[in-house]
Structure formats: C-alpha cells, structure tokens
Design a protein that fits this description.
The structure is a single chain. This protein is of the alpha+beta class and 135 residues long. It has a single domain (4-133), classed as Haem-degrading domain (Beta-Lactamase). It has 5 helices and 4 strands; from the N terminus they run αββαααββα. It has a 4-stranded antiparallel β-sheet with strand order 2-1-4-3. β1 (26-31) and β2 form a beta hairpin. It starts with a helix and ends with a helix.
C-alpha cells in the first residue's frame, strides 16, 4: 500500500533529480488504482503540469509499466494505444514520465512527472520509483 509518507519520499527524490538536471517539474503520486495521493508543483512549472503528471501516473498504474514502455510500443501498429485515452473516464497520457512504484516487489502505485522533456520526465520519475524500491 502506498502511504502519504512513501509518496513524499518518491516525490522528494524526483524533485531532487529535477534540480540536479536543472528543470522544474510537477510530481503526482497515485495508488495502484490510479487515485491521487499527492501532487507537488515546483516553482516555475508549466500551466498543465499538474494534470499531465497525474495522467502519466494513472496510465502507469493502470498498465503496470512505464509510460516510456507504452510510448515505445504505441507506434508498433497496436490500435489499442491510439484509442485507449478516449475509452476511459480518467485522463491517461502515455508519453514518458510515468513509472510504477514498487515496495517489496509489489506494485503499490505510480509516479508521474511533467515539466521537462519526455526523457527528463522519465529520469525524474525513475528516481522517485528507485527511492521507494530501495527502502
């Protein structure tokens, strides 16, 4: 189960990585069902970053994989990925920046980051996920 304290640990790690690489991001943490636990918006982030970070986290939680993996497979001819966001009520974004959160080898939620490039968002989300995987 993802707790608020675990969400804070992942968020701090993602924000620290963002500072290290010189960007401002918004981080959202959701539980394994995609329900919001925490959103933290750094100074100077874009207007839609709270919504996009949550949508990346929701996608990662729903499909139990990184949104980077989803984005890489979306272009392989699977029409599912092109229509999935219109088939659900909760917004999903399948661009890099969403990573499942695990604890004791169990998926407990997901982290989504938005504000940098796709690769930077993925790097920050991965840093947040690693912070939980290592405790």
């Amino acid at each position: 189960m993802i707790t608020l304290e675990k969400a804070r640990i992942a968020t701090r790690a993602a924000q620290t990585k963002a500072q290290e690489i010189g960007i401002s991001i918004t981080v959202s943490i959701v539980d394994q069902s995609g329900r919001l636990i925490l959103t933290e918006r750094a100074d100077g982030t874009g207007f839609l970053t709270p919504e996009t970070s949550k949508a990346k986290a929701v996608a990662s939680a729903a499909f139990k994989r990184t949104t980077k993996h989803i984005a890489e497979n979306a272009g392989t001819g699977h029409t599912f990925w092109s229509i999935v966001s219109s088939a659900v009520t909760e917004p999903l974004i399948t661009t890099p920046g969403g990573v499942p959160l695990t604890h004791s080898n169990t998926i407990i939620g997901a982290i989504g980051c938005a504000g940098g490039t796709a690769e930077q968002d993925h790097e920050c989300a991965n840093a947040g996920a690693q912070a939980l995987a290592n405790i």
